[in-house]
Amino acid sequence: MRGVCFTGDRELEILSFPDPTPGFGEVVLEMKASGMCGSDLKQYRRPRGVRQNNGLATPEGPTIAGHEPCGVVAAIGPGVDPRLAREGARVMVHHYQGCTTCGHCRTGWQQLCQKTSVKVYGNNAHGGHAQYMCVPANTLVPLHEALTFQAGAAISCGTGTAWGALRRMNISGNDTIAIFGQGPVGLSATQLATAMGARVIALDISPQRLQRAKEFGAAETINPSNADPVEAIRELTHGLGAELTLDTSSSPQARVQAIRSLKVWGTCCFVGEGGEVTIDVSPDMLRRQATVVASWTFSSVGQEKCAQFIVDRGIKVDDLFTETWKLDQAEEAYKLFDQQNTGKGVFLI
Q: CA–CA separation, 234 vs 156, rounded Å?
């Protein structure tokens, strides 16, 4: 089979690999869709010869990219519980593997495993930008018949990450939420928060992305390059600020603005990976009783709940995608995605 591998300095190669065979407890998926996520760009942009694995074990040899896999079970290895997998089943993948036995792993949070080095598929273990993918059966999440494979790919990271953050903040229909960044995760958050009844203020420096946010339900949009976002949010909230803010951008400036845009007793959530933020603790947090939380993706249980919510509310997750690609077009696809002014891309395999 062939798979897409990032080689650094915004370059990639499509390499040949043996077709995988499932071992004990494993399954092989025939890939149908593999999404492109903003966090892929960190590996795509890394300097050649440098592996940026955020403390994860460094793999030997080239690693197939893609951590938003969705497909069909093609082969089942020995020892797989038939309740977890059957041939032909439509499935998503919760793209982490820990020890499987600690409290975090057993409750669906394998990425938080404290006992072993976590595998992150598409980072330090082979991901979904290929014809086949071998994973433990315990990473599979059923894909509802009402959802397309590309919708399942979005839920497998970007949309699921937005869901996890919104649930982390206990969002309700009483809330106004300001969402900083309208890339794939931010736009998913705009979709989901609107469906949850909240009033969404969407922020981005791209006019195209702000237009999409309006189409996805944002009540108001703000371009921080044209206006002070903190003042603009206060003007839209009777001078009080938003109950909730969410930063998906990783921008240090946006993170500070997200905190300062809160009303008293408000909650800010950081989702965007990497970077730093410097805040003035007393005026920014203490004297406004602010809560600042972080949200790293979602559990396998949350992934399934997110998918069910999308089905129940008829949310058009497929509309997130502005480009569809074949694996042979990977170089063109990532050069476009790297510009970060379009929507979401997906490989249909």
A: 34
